[in-house]
Design goal:
Layout: H1 8-13, H2 15-26, H3 34-43, H4 50-62, H5 67-82, H6 99-104, H7 107-113, H8 118-135, H9 142-150, H10 157-163, H11 178-199, H12 205-219, H13 226-231, H14 233-251
Length: 252
């Protein structure tokens, strides 16, 4: 008889084993109780995207079972499905908001990158940071992994509507840049989802601190100051590698 899954920690740390048990139960083999099955179903990522499922397994491994960060990653990846990131471009149409990417790539490259959707780009960046971390151990890299998923969330219209209800036209001088929108979403919307998932309705200052730290990384991922360049270096390296990969694929 299989060991029971009795805690969130056990579920996260035993993700690969749990998935095998989950699949065996689905095929009709009675290995665990219905209650345990429902618990596992809750903590397994829900997405029709096979790439997301594979990347989530790698995220769980990279985060070394950090429950808070694993839950945040799970929610973010599922949100990308529910808010249809595949229908939004990964390049902002606002001239101020896309100034950074315009300064790096040629006009032809910039035009080409408009064809890469936000879902694909976000997963590419996540995959690149996971590959980077598989080659070297970077202390405290967990929040940066999550920030890689979230850094361009503010480019999605649905995120912008949730984070800034009084959103204005992209041509307005009051239009908020995507790092700011992404950060607001993390601090306000994502925090509530994570808090309720982990604690139902209780407050936990550690969750608030974790979320605020991720929000700071997201807000400053285009900050060119010396202090922030080092802090967001992992995100920008992954982003740059993802863009080069996208251009190469578009060129084929």
């Amino acid at each position: 008889m299989a060991n029971k899954i009795t805690s969130v920690a056990q579920m996260v740390n035993s993700y690969h084993v749990a998935e095998v048990i989950y699949n065996q139960r689905e095929s009709g083999t009675e290995l665990i109780s219905n209650t345990d099955f429902k618990f596992m179903e809750k903590w397994g990522i829900k997405t029709p995207d096979p790439r997301k499922k594979e990347l989530y397994k790698k995220v769980v491994s990279a985060l070394r079972g950090n429950i808070k960060l694993c839950v945040i990653a799970k929610i973010c990846l599922e949100e990308m499905d529910s808010m249809r990131f595949d229908t939004f471009a990964s390049v902002s149409s606002n001239q101020n908001d896309n100034k950074n990417i315009r300064s790096i790539y040629s006009s032809m490259e910039f035009s080409a990158l408009k064809n890469v959707d936000l879902n694909t780009h976000s997963l590419n960046v996540l995959e690149e940071v996971l590959d980077e971390l598989s080659e070297k151990d970077v202390y405290g890299s967990g929040p940066a992994v999550i920030a890689c998923i979230l850094h361009d969330f503010g480019k999605a219209k649905k995120v912008r509507e949730l984070a800034t209800p009084d959103s204005v036209s992209e041509n307005s001088s009051k239009f908020r840049m995507h790092p700011e929108v992404s950060s607001i979403y993390v601090r306000d919307v994502l925090y509530e989802k994570v808090r309720k998932t982990l604690l139902d309705a209780k407050e936990d200052p550690n969750i608030r601190k974790t979320i605020d730290g991720i929000a700071e990384l997201v807000a400053n991922h285009h900050n060119s100051s010396k202090a922030w360049k080092k802090k967001v270096g992992l995100i920008n390296v992954a982003d740059s590698k993802a863009r080069k990969r996208e251009l190469a694929e578009l060129d084929e």
